[in-house]
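Supplementary Note 3. Input sequence used for the single-chain structure prediction.
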Amino acid sequence: GANGLNGLPVLRFDGVAHAYTLASITTTGGDFTIIAVMKRNGTVAVSLGQDGDFLPGHGRNATDALIGNGRGPSSGGYAQAPTTTTGWEILSAAWSGTAAVRGQSNASTLTFGSTTVYGNATNWNRIGRRGATYGNNDLADLIYWPSVLTADEIVQAHANLNATWGGVY
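The predicted structure, written as discrete structure tokens, is reproduced below.
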């Protein structure tokens, strides 16, 4: 419909007080990769989080992809990668321990600068909310791997999702 991607339905989180709460907490462990097909509709898009503050894979503001836990520079904060993507986006982040090691927005590799520590890898139990922040976004696909995908594997996953969804970019 009008809210869909190429005529297919998507989940919409309106940024007011709606999120999908999982039946159980998902433990990410040390190494993982998350790829989402998403669109920011308001000031912020949040794909994953918990009641506290964890943002393990994805966030968006108007100018950046945000990867991190949102606790601020003293105990984590965000890895920020500039991206001016508007509309639908395939956004990925690969984590090793507490560091975001690589990412991609559509066909563009994201540069996070130093990958020392961007926050603790705590559990997550919500889609569409991180702490008190609700996402203004649509979410069409969300894939989790319990390993760090290589750059080539991320490119292949993006290409597959781009074809599956009828051409995001």
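The radius of gyration is 14 Å. The longest strand covers residues 31-40.
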